[in-house]
Amino acid sequence: MMPPATQDPPHSQPPGPGGPAPRTGAPAHSLRARLLWFLLAAIVCTALLQILLSYRSALSEADEIFDYHMEQMAMALRPGLPEVPANAPGPLVHDDENYEFVVQVWSAEGLRVFESAVGAALPQRAVLGFSRVKAHGTTYRVFSVQTRSQVIQVAQDMAVRKAMARDLALRTAGPIALMAPLLALAVWWVVSGSLAPVERVRREVAQRQADDLSPVDGDALPAEVQPLVDELNLLFARVQRAFEAQQHFVADAAHELRSPLAALKLQAQGLLRAPDAEARGVAVARLSAGIDRATRLVEQLLALARQESSVAAGAPAQPVVLADLALQAVADAAPAAQQRGIDLGLARADAAPIAGHAEALRILLRNLVDNAVKYTPDGGVVDVHVIADAPAHGAEPGGAVTLVVDDSGPGIGEGDRERVLGRFCRAPQAVEGGAQVPGSGLGLAIVQSIARMHQAQVALEGSPRLGGLRVSVRFDALAGAAPSAPAPQAPSAGDGA
Question: What global pTM score does this model have?
Answer without folding.
Answer: 0.46
